[in-house]
Structures are given as C-alpha cells and as structure tokens.
Design brief:
The chain has 20 helices and six strands. The protein is 70% helix and 4% strand. 43% of the residues are buried.
Length: 509
C-alpha cells in the first residue's frame, strides 16, 4: 500500500472512531506504560517471593507454587470478562478498574503479616492483570492492518523493558529497613510498595491521557455490500437465507456479478448464519448481504485454534525454562543471586533487541505468518540442541557454558517472533466486534500455560530428556497445526466491498 493510500485509510479510520492520530498515539503510550509496569512487577516480585513467604513461616514449596499460580489463575478467569466488556465499549473504565485492583493487591502484599494475605494480594492483582485482553482489543480497533503488528510490537517491547528494568530495583535493598506509619519497609516488602506507586502512576496516566472509543458495530469478515440506483434496482423483499436453507446467489439479483456470487455462496455455506437482503426501500437504495458468524464459529476455526496453540506453546516453554534455569546455573556454574540477576538482564537485552527486530520487519511489510515461521524454526533449533547436548555436558566446564548460552540465545530470540505476530494476526482473522472476547480467550490459554509450565519444570527439571522431550513434542504439534493452516493465515479482505463504480461502468458499456 502506498503512503498516500495508507494515510487516507488511516484518516478515514480516525474519523469513524472520533479520535485523532495524536490521541491514538497517547493512548498507545498509556498501554505501553501499563505493560511496562506489568513487566516490572513480574521482575521484582518473583525473585523475593520465596524468601518473603519463608519470613512469614510459609516456607512450603507447594504453597510457593500456589501463590505463583494464583496470579495466573485469577487472570485466566478475568481476561474473558474484561474482553466481553471491551466489546461493549469503555476500555478506559476497564483500565482504571485494573489499576485499582493492582494497587489493592500489591498493597496487601506490602502489609501482609502471614502467607494467606500474600495469596489474597496476588489473586486480586491477577484479576487486574486480565485487562490485557481489553488492551489488545483496543489496539486492534485503532490501527490499520498494515501497522497493527508494529504497534503491538511496540507495546510488548515495553513489557520486555520492564522485565529488564525490574531486577535493577532489587539491587541495594538487602539492608533496607524503616517504618512508614504502622508498616515496616524491608527488602522483602518493598516490591509491594514499589508496585503500589507504579500502578497509581498508571491509573493517573490513563485518566489524563487515554482516549476511549465507542463500542464497535457488529461486523464480521463475511459482510458484502452491493449498491445500485433505486430506479434500476429490482425488488427482492424479504429475500433471506437461514440455517439449513440454500443461500441466495448474487447472480440471481444481477447477472454481472458471478464471481461475487460464488464467494458469497461459499461464505454462507461455511458459516450458516442468517443473511438478509433489504428491499428496494433501503436507505440509498443499497442491497446489503451480511454473513455474521457467531463467536463460537469464529474462534473454533482452525487458523484461530492454531494461533491459540502457538500462544500456549510460547508461554509454556518460557515459564518452564525460567523455572529450570536457576537450579541449572547453580548446579553447573555455582551462580548465585548476583550472577543470575546479570544473566536475566543480558537475556532481557537479547529479548528487547529481538522485539525491535520484529517491529522493524513488520514495518517493512513482512507478513505475520512468516515472522511466526522464523520463531518456530528458532525454537525448534534451540530445543533440539538442548535435548542433544545438555545431557552430555559436565558441570563447571567451558563446553557447558557455551552450550547453555547458545540454547538460551536461540530460544529467547525465537519467542518475540511468536509473541508479537500471534495477537496481531488473530485480530486480522476475526471480526472487530469480538476482539475483546477473542483476546480474552487467548489470554486464558496463556494463563493455563503459565500455570502448567512451572509445574512441569518443577517435576522434571532434573530429568532433561522427559523435560525437554515434552517441550519438543508440544512444539511439533503446534508446528504441524501452523503448517496445516499456513495458507489460510492471511487476513480477510475488508468487510465492506463497494461495487457501485464497477456496476455503473458495466451499465454504461
């Protein structure tokens, strides 16, 4: 698409939404702030949570796992709910509610006097984290397809920067101890206090800078429009096709539209939903054919299910590796807290670089499915290398360090090529009116992965063959599904196709 055509379509989009480019960019900045602090929270809470629970006499490993998984479980429940409300309009209110939940949850974490309060705080914060579905729905509605992957990449890179910046907040807090009123600030409670401040800033930023949009019109990729002059248009009152009935063909209405007729008939047979043609008295004399699949039909089609599978694979592998890597470095290299913190910062730099690389490739017009292909290949090479070489290396050797660095680099490099295109491509394959619901489903799938991944790593981290074997097996299944639907991972054409000029030209000849 040329620059002029892109600017024209973007201007038309903003007119329809009732916002300006500046307002859109400010809103995207608000979402970037939200995702940045989401990354910071993960990075500051996780390293100290185990010690915090031990200091409260809740040092059982099963309870530590319960607290970790409670955050994801709460988000799994709230994400579809946030998404459904986002489909009805009012994303700004949802973001404000999320900020309040995050403030309350982290405040409870800060003031906790036993492990049960810590659990309650993480559950409440997890409920607030479900707003991610609403944020992706908003991004899908305020961007054109050509720019969507790049914009989503920018927002998700902000989270990665938060993951990189978060560990730095834990440096120098080991001997921290002072009171704030009745509450004690220590190295173990300060993460909660820091996040209370961060989420307060987020709420204020959203309130001041975020511009909301109206609820989307009910639309789906199957909508087609044909306009004719009223004087020439034949009357087809109450012509319709319902489930189980043969769909009307456009060629029955106008003989010069055989190609559109076939496409329309194929769409009706696939979705089977009600399709109506208004009579001659319709506004502007238009004949409008609408094919609107249900939410169930939209999100159970194979391309979308394949994207759900890739989403689960990404987060399962990431969380399993994060759980595995610290015990591995302690056993093989005797790395302690400082060395591991440096490692995580370096890994974060690699991830940020890859996020920027994906953003640049998307900006150059590389299709989402080809970006995903790069990610799957990198993941495959990294996991197979790990399965073959890691069981063979010996602790405290240069070979072990080289293999570890190569494996981590390959896997970390591949993940951004999957994390960014998947939500962008899903938004392009589904209707605008159901973006919140769809992104909520995707976040639910991701939450399941965040729960199961660490559990699997905790059970099998000492057994590299079954541990890595399952990850490779999941990768193989997701890859097969991806290649099966590869040809269908192409965004549908615009929902409204005007044939006025074409028909008018035909009538003149």
């Amino acid at each position: 698409m040329g620059a002029d055509a892109f600017e024209s379509q973007q201007a038309a989009l903003f007119v329809r939404l009732g916002i300006t480019l500046k307002q859109r960019d400010k809103s995207v900045l608000c979402l970037s702030v939200l995702w940045f602090f989401a990354g910071v929270e993960y990075a500051v809470i996780l390293p100290t949570l185990w010690l915090y629970l031990q200091s409260l006499d809740f040092g059982e490993r099963w309870y530590f796992g319960l607290v970790l998984s409670s955050f994801s479980a709460a988000g799994m429940i709230s994400a579809p709910i946030f998404g459904l409300f986002a489909d009805r309009g009012g994303v700004k209110g949802l973001l404000m509610l999320s900020s309040v939940l995050m403030v309350v949850g982290n405040f409870l974490y800060f003031v906790a006097n036993d492990g049960y309060v810590v659990l309650e705080g993480r559950v409440i914060a997890g409920l607030g984290a479900g707003v991610a579905s609403a944020s992706f729905a908003y991004l899908a509605r305020v961007t054109l397809r050509e720019e969507r992957t790049r914009v989503i990449g920018t927002v998700m890179a902000a989270r990665q920067l938060g993951l990189l910046f978060g560990p730095a907040l834990n440096f120098g807090t080991e001997h921290l101890h002072f009171p704030i009123g009745p509450f004690e600030v220590t190295s173990l409670t300060v993460p909660g206090l820091v996040m209370v401040l961060c989420w307060t800033i987020t709420g204020l930023t959203v309130y001041v800078m975020f511009t909301d949009i109206d609820a989307p019109l009910s639309s789906a990729p199957g909508t087609r429009r044909v306009s004719r002059q009223p004087s020439r248009q034949p009357s087809y009152n109450n012509l319709s096709a319902r489930r189980g009935e043969k769909a009307p063909l456009l060629s029955d209405i106008h003989p010069r539209l055989p190609d559109m007729s076939a496409r329309y008939h194929e769409a009706i047979n696939e979705y089977g939903d009600e399709t109506k043609v208004p009579d001659q008295g319709s506004p502007n004399g238009e004949l409008v054919y609408t094919v609107i699949p249900t939410r169930w039909q939209e999100y159970t089609q194979m391309p979308v299910l394949a994207l759900f599978g890739v989403s689960f694979l990404c987060i399962f592998n990431q969380l399993a590796l994060e759980t595995w890597v610290t015990p591995f470095t302690q056993q093989y290299f005797d790395w302690q807290e400082t060395a591991n913190s440096v490692m995580y910062m370096l890994v974060g730099l690699v991830a940020v670089s890859m996020f920027l690389c994906v953003r640049a490739l998307a900006n150059r017009g590389v299709a989402d499915r080809y970006l995903m292909l790069i990610g799957l290949v990198a993941e495959c090479v990294g996991l197979v290398t790990a399965l073959v070489l890691i069981p063979l290396v010996h602790p405290h050797t240069t070979t072990a360090l080289i293999v570890f660095v190569v494996v981590v680099f390959l896997i970390v490099s591949g993940l951004p090529f999957l994390f960014i295109p998947v939500p962008a491509l899903q938004s392009k394959l589904t209707s605008e009116a159901t973006q919140g619901f769809g992104q909520g489903l995707r976040r639910t799938v991701i939450s399941v992965g965040t729960i199961i991944g660490p559990l699997w790593a905790g059970l099998m981290s000492r057994e590299p063959y079954p541990f890595l074997g399952l990850m490779i097996g999941l990768l193989a299944v997701a890859s097969l599904a991806f290649f099966w639907v590869f040809g269908r991972l192409v965004p549908a054409e615009e929902t409204d196709i005007s044939l006025v000029d074409e028909v008018a030209d035909d009538d003149k000849t």
